[in-house]
Amino acid sequence: MSQTATISSAGPTASQDARVEARGPRPTPFFTPRKIVIYSILFFACLYFLFPLYVMITTSFKTMPEIRWGNIFAPPIEPTGEAWIKAWTSACTGLTCQGLSPGFWNSVKITVPSTLVSIFIAAVNGYALINWRFKGSEIFFTILIFGSFIPYQVMLYPLVMITRELGIFGSLWAVILVHTIFGMPILTLLFRNYFASLPVELFKAARVDGAGFWRIFFEIMLPMSLPIFVVAMILQITGIWNDFLFGVVFAGTQNYPMTVQLNNIVNSVQGSPEYNVNMAATILTGLVPLIVYFVSGRLFVRGIAAGAVKG
Amino acid sequence: MQHSVSIRDLSLNFGHVKVLEHLNLDIAEGEFIVLLGPSGCGKSTLLNCIAGLLDVSDGQIFINGKNVTWEEPKDRGIGMVFQSYALYPQMTVERNLSFGLRVARMQKDEVERRVKRASEILQIEPLLKRKPVELSGGQRQRVAIGRALVRDVDVFLFDEPLSNLDAKLRSDLRVEIKRLHQRLKNTMIYVTHDQIEALTLADRIAIMKNGVIQQLADPHTIYNKPTNLYVAGFIGSPSMNFLEGELQGGTEPVFRANDGTVIPVKTYAFETAPNGGAVKGVLGVRPEHIAVGEAAKAMPFATEVEVEIVEPMGSDTLAYTKLAGQTLTFRADSEINLRDGQTVLVGFDPGRGSIFDTATSNRI
């Protein structure tokens, strides 16, 4: 008792001391050689990665004549949003000329159900593999993980045949199914490891209390799993949104996701390439993963911090 | 009389590893049983089997005369308290307590009544609206006990409930568990590796090693008449002194230590009368049963020894010496002034000790 008591009572004083110390003047000067080196490297790395983005954004606000002058680093003289509007509403994506907006909605229709279904199934998988071990569950898990090492291309044709037999080839259902299948190994691994890190006694206690498979899953496990759900969502949303291969193979021409339509705009062979529209379309397509990163990244950190408090 | 919990020939294997082997245990109604042993001896595994959280490989478990070997945990009439408390972190104390009742779809007013009663008994009423994070270790463990209490179970299972608490709190809560048992008179099965908890709480202690119960008896018997060398060495702190030698039977039985020191053991109550021949054996004497100085003269056996190390413990003093070439520890009153290198007279009554057969390591 006395030991813990001293430690806990010493805690606040120690942290107060630390705070007092932090308020005082720093003993080292701000410009140390070490810092100069670190910040210059960071600065140039930043430039290196931000420069293409700068070119994309400025070009997208230029008019075609202005682009043809050839000075790609110059800011737009007469900024105009026309290229953006065209990219969204009227650029030609193959046969139709409705811009990217149909592709955007197709991508939403693909990404939302694929993400939800794959995460739900993987969460249940991971939970069952850890807490309800059955005969052969380890082998099942090994096979599942092995699946993540097989290249997509190998399974492409068999999947085409399967979806054709199911009568869903060339529809949104096919893409959703394929994304769900391919998300399974990595997500199951993710959830299994997360659930393995939760104290098993909680699960036992819930069983003694009489809760069953689903009740424990929804009422005990899920409320403790926000961080891992955010991680899984980032993985799936960005992965599925950026997918090109499955979209072009399984979705059918009516349901091409945004990435496929972007390709059709950029690689169009008719007329002269409209760089401003291409740039705008590319930024539009990349916007969703970017937003997901920025928004959920914060949530993610908050989720981890909330989970860090021992329950 | 009907047993509250009966375990018949229970075995459990994890692959090729035998964790429990043909275990039998009968627990009377209202009895407080402690399963005691080092880590890995199978005591927690046995408790999990009784709770229904582990499937057994062979054998049966009866609770209140009903075969529950393959029943779900909730249908066994048991409540369990875990070492890590295992409170649901996202629920308030009140909802933690009522979770099992809500799962069973109990009437709302009945749930409230039971939560109220349990929180009164455990004095956690002011905490009902709090989350587990906002509780201290002792409070959390009380809530965990309360969760078993509200369900009105026949048998309480405790899995090292005090091991995560600091020493002071542990002894407080130990007394509280004992009080709770006196009040509720439920059957309680309590797993621990702490012999003090075992000796203070138990009606009977089951000492386990390698999945086998070594001895099942009341604390007094366990302490005074350990059934084999393992139990003798496990119980007691500092542990029992063991002198190796030979037991000579006959009308005047003596124990001859390895260096030839002869100790008369006529006062010893043999379980099986030794025959005339000599048997290799071990004489065990507890450090606290050794008398020092004047008191030693009255003992059936007394000899002079040289004190090697003295450890003052406050209430008493531990001294390490050599008898018959083997280490002998004794506990003396702190009033007796002992110094390193001093020669003192020590004596003991072999009748309070234990003699074991070296070959079988069982008590003779």
Automatic annotation (TrEMBL), chain A:
Q: Where is this region: Disordered?
A: 1-25
Q: Where in the cell is it found?
A: Cell membrane
The reply on keyword Signal is no
Q: Give the stretches traversing the membrane.
A: 36-57, 110-130, 139-160, 172-195, 216-241, 279-301
Stated membrane topology is: Multi-pass membrane protein
Q: Which InterPro entries match?
A: MetI-like (IPR000515), MetI-like_sf (IPR035906)
Per the UniProt record, one Pfam family is BPD_transp_1
Please list the residue ranges annotated as the ABC transmembrane type-1 domain. Answer: 104-296
Keywords for the protein's UniProt record, in alphabetical order: Membrane, Transmembrane, Transmembrane helix, Transport
Which residues fall in a compositionally biased region of kind Polar residues?
A: 1-16
Answer yes or no on keyword Transferase.
no
- Tell me which family the UniProt entry assigns to this protein: Belongs to the binding-protein-dependent transport system permease family.
Entry protein name: ABC transporter permease
Lineage per the UniProt record: Bacteria, Pseudomonadati, Pseudomonadota, Alphaproteobacteria, Hyphomicrobiales
UniProtKB/TrEMBL annotation, chain B:
Family annotation (PANTHER family): MALTODEXTRIN IMPORT ATP-BINDING PROTEIN MSMX, OSMOPROTECTIVE COMPOUNDS UPTAKE ATP-BINDING PROTEIN GGTA
Q: What name goes with this protein?
A: ABC transporter ATP-binding protein
List the transmembrane segments.
none
PROSITE patterns, per this entry? ABC_TRANSPORTER_1 (PS00211), ABC_TRANSPORTER_2 (PS50893)
Which family does the entry's similarity section mention?
A: Belongs to the ABC transporter superfamily.
GO terms (molecular function) for this protein are:
ATP binding
The superkingdom of the source organism is: Bacteria
Q: Where does the record place the ABC transporter domain?
A: 5-235
Question: Which organism does this sequence originate in?
Answer: Devosia nitrariae
**What are the record keywords, sorted?**
ATP-binding, Nucleotide-binding, Transport
Q: What InterPro entries has UniProt attached to this entry? A: AAA+_ATPase, ABC_transporter-like_ATP-bd, ABC_transporter-like_CS, ABC_transpr_MalK-like, ABC_transpr_MalK/UgpC-like, Mo/tungstate-bd_C_term_dom, NA-bd_OB-fold, P-loop_NTPase
